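Today's session is about reading a structure prediction critically. Students often jump straight to the picture, but the first step is always the sequence itself: look for stretches that repeat, for charged clusters, for runs of hydrophobic residues. Only then move on to the predicted structure, which in these notes is written as discrete structure tokens rather than atom positions. Here is the chain we will use throughout the hour.
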Amino acid sequence: MPFEKGIFCQNRFMVKALVKIWIVASITGCTLTMASGQDLRQIYAIAPARFVISKSDLDHGRKQVERVLQDRPGMGKYIAREDTVYRWLVEQFAGEGIGQRIYWSNETPTHGTAGQNHPPENGGAAKVLVRKQDLNMKEVECAALIYELLNIRNGREFNKLFRRFLTAKPVKPNPQLREEFVLRASMLEYNTLVSTKSFYSLVWLPSLKEKHIESDSWSWRTTIPSSFSEWRKSDDAKTFLKYWGEAYDNWLASKKG
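Below is the predicted structure for this chain, in token form.
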């Protein structure tokens, strides 16, 4: 599910455990610490563990970030070359989060969303997209990029959901399966929203304070409820639930055709 603008959309069928979400907060040349002095590496796991970023991967990452700043120049106000956020972005495009390089795409996201990602599939490249915003909405572009670089890590989990629920037979309406699919997909999105909020407080906001730039916390969903069960009742969640419900229905319709 892409990152939405505007309000930033987004039981027995509930997943027993939340899917683990990683925020990679160890940056090349910069160790981030909490007030307690803990290295954030001790809190957020780096995945997959066997992937080692090479110099060529980092060169790729820098090229992608430079293309982002060229295609979305308003983001340059918030992301200065070689600052903490810049280095984090470089490492994400280099592949630290998913074990594979990610590419920037200057395409426009579909469904009117502010951001979108395409996980690597069938040998294809992983990529992220961010919609151009008005001059007074450039921080939204930044938030959407961060969100998609975190959410693309859910690619394997989404694929598992698709294989489990979108290959079910017989192909006919099944409200029970539909509800479980929608809830599980939305939970993955919710976890990424929580991770994005954490990134905001631990990485983004301190970086902007160093630059003496005021941040618009609204762009980062800082008021998101602390539990999925609470969030799913909110207006914010309705768009996610609707999105994944329609995805299930469209899949069913395509099979009937």
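Discussion point for the tutorial: DSSP finds seven helices and five strands in the chain.
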